[in-house]
């Protein structure tokens, strides 16, 4: 009897400890996200990445909170996304909804990379919409949109913008960069999977056996992709301090 009740007490204590540990881990995770969100400019230490002058384009790149963008820029981000994506959305089970998309793109947690012509600043050419968030117990930089005007595509700019995101993710202590792609968006598949080596994330919905047997991709038309951001940690010989090295990303 006595032993049984001790075991019950131990179990209760174990449960309590586990709950406390989970709480601590969650708090620590959200503290990193909050710190990232409270930055004035996540690109502050990435000065060489503020311009891209290659393959006939000469642009500047800034990182801004959605709340800092002027009205015309916010409208432009929506229109470019709509022009590029509406048909692809309509070919999926999601369909296209102006209001929903506007709401998502202007969520107060949204950050933007805005690409402008270096001389004519009014000419906006590309955008990235991203958020710092927790997904499935990972700290992630979630890329909601990467949208380029047609005239600046296939010039390496998309790859450069994704490199910036990966660097921001590294500097802010995120563990992954994540994004969602439509299976039928062939160009973006080539871009993310073949070129940038993003892989299907564990959270990506799996096609059913029937879908695979009948090669029916219509059930789930999207995939979640991710890339792990390795935080290389080096112990300092003379102290317990940890120094963090940046990943080897080139400007090319
Ligand atoms: C997808 C997108 C972001 C790619 O950006 P980009 O600047 O055009 O791509 P890059 O020039 O950096 O291309 C890097 C590589 O990706 C692959 N790639 C990019 N676009 C491709 C396409 N249309 N077809 C096949 N491969 C492509 C190629 O391997 C390319 O290297 P290469 O030009 O040396 O062959 C851009 O085309 C875009 O904005 N598309 C419309 C919106 C969209 O679909 N966004 C993605 C939503 S998930």
Keywords:
single chain, 252 residues, alpha+beta, Aminopeptidase, 2 domains, two-stranded antiparallel ribbon, 6 helices, 10 strands, binds coenzyme A
Report on the structure:
This protein is α+β, with helices and mostly antiparallel strands and 252 residues long. It folds into 2 domains: 1-38; 39-245, Gcn5-related N-acetyltransferase (GNAT) (Aminopeptidase). The protein is built from 6 helices and 10 strands. It has helices at 2-37, 71-90, 98-105, 157-171, 186-195, 209-213; strands at 51-54, 57-65, 111-117, 124-135, 138-148, 176-182, 199-200, 222-228, 232-235, 242-245. It has an 8-stranded mixed β-sheet, with helices on both faces. A two-stranded antiparallel ribbon has the order 9-10. Strand 4 (124-135) and strand 5 form a beta hairpin. The radius of gyration is 22 Å and the shape is globular. The model is unreliable at 234-246 and 248-252 (pLDDT under 50).
Ligands in the model, by name, code or SMILES, are:
coenzyme A
The total of beta strands comes to: 10
**CATH topology-level name of the largest domain:** Aminopeptidase
Shape: globular
In short:
The chain is of the alpha+beta class and 252 residues long. It is 37% helix and 27% strand. It has helices at 2-37, 71-90, 98-105, 157-171, 186-195, 209-213, and strands at residues 51-54, 57-65, 111-117, 124-135, 138-148, 176-182, 199-200, 222-228, 232-235, 242-245.
């Amino acid at each position: 009897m006595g032993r049984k009740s001790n075991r019950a007490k131990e179990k209760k204590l174990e449960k309590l400890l586990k709950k406390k540990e989970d709480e601590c881990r969650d708090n620590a995770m959200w503290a990193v996200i909050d710190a990232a969100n409270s930055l004035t400019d996540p690109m502050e230490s990435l000065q060489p990445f503020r311009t891209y002058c290659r393959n006939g384009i000469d642009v500047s790149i800034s990182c801004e909170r959605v709340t800092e963008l002027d009205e015309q820029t916010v409208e432009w981000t929506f229109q470019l996304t709509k022009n590029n994506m509406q048909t692809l959305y309509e070919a999926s089970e999601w369909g296209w909804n102006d209001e929903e998309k506007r709401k998502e793109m202007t969520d107060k947690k949204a950050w933007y990379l805005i690409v402008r012509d270096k001389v004519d600043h009014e000419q906006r050419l590309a955008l990235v919409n991203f958020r710092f968030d927790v997904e499935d117990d990972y700290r992630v930089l979630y890329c909601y949109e990467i949208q380029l005007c047609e005239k600046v595509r296939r010039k390496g700019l998309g790859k450069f913008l994704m490199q910036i995101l990966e660097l921001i993710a590294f500097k802010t202590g995120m563990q992954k960069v994540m994004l969602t792609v439509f299976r039928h968006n062939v160009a973006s598949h080539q871009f993310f999977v073949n070129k940038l080596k993003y892989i299907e994330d564990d959270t990506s919905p799996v096609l059913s056996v029937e879908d695979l047997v009948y090669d029916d991709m219509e059930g789930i038309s999207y995939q979640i992709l991710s890339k792990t951001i390795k935080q290389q940690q080096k112990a300092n010989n003379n102290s317990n301090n940890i120094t963090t090295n940046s990943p080897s990303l080139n400007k090319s």
